[in-house]
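Form 7-S
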Amino acid sequence: MPEKPTGADWKEVEDSSRLLLLEYLDSHDVEEALECFKELAAPQFHARILKMAMVQALDLKEEERYLYAKLFKSLFEESIVSEQQFEQRYSPSFFPKALRN
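Output:
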């Protein structure tokens, strides 16, 4: 699990978020990723984290993009990321049809 950043420094949150996302791609454990996301305690950076993940996803295989989409959907459904934050970085074409409502 990534270390919890101290304070609200974007660089620390970015580094922890990158580790969180890599660990998630390795483990496929949505629940653990959600807990780690909460532990970041940085809602002011949620939109930036989503953008960072989406940019990373462009270079990933389809299976890994699906995992990111699954994580994003869970972040939204669990109200960890607000609808407004989600819409700031949401790209409908990113999400596989199976995950769209």
